[in-house]
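Appendix B, example 12.
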Amino acid sequence: MHTLALGRSGLRVSGVALGTMNFGTDLQAPTSEPEAHRIVGAFLDAGHNLIDTADTYRGGGSEEIVGRAIASRRADVVLATKGAAPQGVGPNHRGLSRAHLTRALEASLRRLGTDYVDLYQCHVADPDTPIEETMATLDGFVRAGKVRYIGCSNFTAAGIVSAQWAAQRGAGTPLVSLQANYSVMARAIEAEILPTCVQSGLGVLAYSPLGSGLLAGRYRRDTPPEAGSRLAQWADMPSPMARDFVAGVLAPRHFDIRDEVAAVAAALHTTTATIALAWLARRPSITSVILGPRTVDQLTAGLAGLAFDLPEQAAARLDAASQFTVVPPTNGQHRAALRSGVSRSVDKW
């Protein structure tokens, strides 16, 4: 198995991670439990070890299925889950407070059928909880043996620095990883977040490598998402943020990038998904790419895409087509970010 150290830690993880958002016990779930077990088995048999879930995926159903799927091979798995999402209606049933995270972790352990998780991650930043409280709570989980390593997801560069400072001041456990949205059509983290991860000792787990399906050819320009697709479900939500997310994914610039990816794919006689994954696999500072297959066939295609040998000239063409302009924040915005250490824009809930 080819593995890399996860950030500044001794934990070795595969360069491919299995994302399990599609696993669910409800009738609406894209992936049934039997198929999920086949996916997990194929993933582990292929020599990979990092499996990622969250307490909010399918209302906890993903964790339950993952727990059952890995029960006989627990020692071979680097098991990662996340907490922060609402698990009740009260104000203390969400976020990164000690009260919520303690309940959330215990519930995740029960659903996963294990007494520890290898990587416990803050799913989003929480501007209403002091980062010192969050980091002290996570350190307590590590000292209690319920968590081996801690990470975060969707944090800003300032948020990462604030968390590491809090851990250092409290002589506690630092973060070793960040999950971030990264693909050929979503490269904003290259400006500040990736350099901060390198400097702060965080490995990077890249999610949504196919741009929510757009880079796999699932959506067409100037056409509403097909009924039943993930973007169609988001578009039907009452939340303005969900609709804004869909509009962002389907932005004209993203279709321009997708068209360039398709042109490269045609020239190399392969698929757009393969080219998008191959481009991401070449990027520096990425520890692992998270694949979220619905079927074993999709897993097989994804693994092949990450192993595809993308020619240097083709990679350079995609680099140029997907360049973005960094707009420096104003002094006021910069000071506010440093004070808070978090971004309210990533609060999904």
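The beta strands are 3-5, 12-14, 16-19, 50-52, 78-83, 117-122, 147-153, 175-181, 203-207, 288-291. The two ends are 37 Å apart (CA to CA).
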